[in-house]
Specification:
The complex is a heterodimer.
Chain A (H helix, E strand, L loop, with lengths): L3 E4 L2 E4 L5 E7 L5 E7 L6 E8 L2 E4 L6 E7 L2 E6 L8 E8 L7 E2 L3 E5 L1
Parallel strand pairs in A: 2-11
Antiparallel strand pairs in A: 1-3, 3-8, 4-5, 4-9, 5-6, 7-8, 9-10, 9-11
Chain B lengths: L3 E4 L2 E5 L4 E7 L5 E7 L5 E7 L2 E5 L2 E6 L4 E6 L8 E9 L2 E4 L3 E6 L1
Parallel strand pairs in B: 2-11
Antiparallel strand pairs in B: 1-3, 3-8, 4-5, 4-9, 6-7, 7-8, 9-10, 9-11
Classes of the chains: A mainly beta, B mainly beta.
């Protein structure tokens, strides 16, 4: 299995608080992605990275920011969490942009 | 944005049955992906194909580029095949995902 670790795995927090999710990989893959998964929707891309300090927005980027200061780490930050951001968040990696992506185990985030 | 539609949304089958899950997409793609998500959440890539057919064990994936359609077949289904199957269309870096097909295989 591809070495991808998401932390935390579960988090409950209150509206208005900042939240940071971490994705750590040991595969030295260039591309890293953050998705959210909600009932009634497919996986939706929040942000992705194509290299250190190189990031771009996805389909549902409003309210989220990302950073990638090292190849192995991709951070997703909710500056001021809202209840609509309650979701399961998945990180994924790929070596080349069009290749199969390997997924982390997900982070279940609840915002009350 | 590439609209990806899957059918059926839910599927129940008896062990041993042949299963087909369909996926259609709206615009040209570079590849079509099939993924599997078990209860508990883990997502695994099953296939990536841009033409023809691929087979892995009891799973077969086909794609018809002209018709913008792909199918995932499971032969001799087994309860351990119970999962959500997701198709995703890619062009460049981006994957556009369908909403998934929830499959339950009963003994």
């Amino acid at each position: 299995d591809a070495g991808i670790t998401q932390s935390p795995r579960h988090k409950v927090t209150e509206t208005g608080t900042p939240v940071t999710l971490r994705c750590h990989q040991t595969e030295n893959h260039r591309y890293m992605y953050w998705y959210r998964q909600d009932p009634g929707h497919g996986l939706r891309l929040i942000h992705y990275s194509y290299g250190v300090k190189d990031t771009d927005k996805g389909e549902v980027s409003d309210g989220y920011s990302v950073s990638r200061s090292k190849t192995e780490d991709f951070l997703l930050t909710l500056e001021s969490a809202t209840s609509s951001q309650t979701s399961v968040y998945f990180c994924a990696i790929s070596d080349v942009g069009n290749q199969p992506q390997h997924f982390g185990d997900g982070t279940r985030l609840s915002i009350l | 944005k590439n609209e990806v539609e899957q059918s059926p949304q839910n599927l129940t089958a008896q062990e041993g049955e042949f299963i087909t899950i369909n996926c259609s997409y709206s615009v040209g793609i570079s590849a079509l992906h099939w993924l599997q998500q078990h209860p508990g959440g883990g997502i695994v890539s099953l296939f990536m194909l841009s033409s023809g057919k691929k087979k892995h064990g009891r799973l077969i994936a086909t794609i018809n580029i002209q018709e913008k359609h792909s199918s995932l077949h499971i032969t001799a289904s087994h309860p351990r095949d119970s999962a959500v199957y997701i198709c995703a269309a890619s062009s460049g870096y981006a994957l556009n995902f369908g909403k998934g097909t929830s499959l339950l295989v009963t003994p």
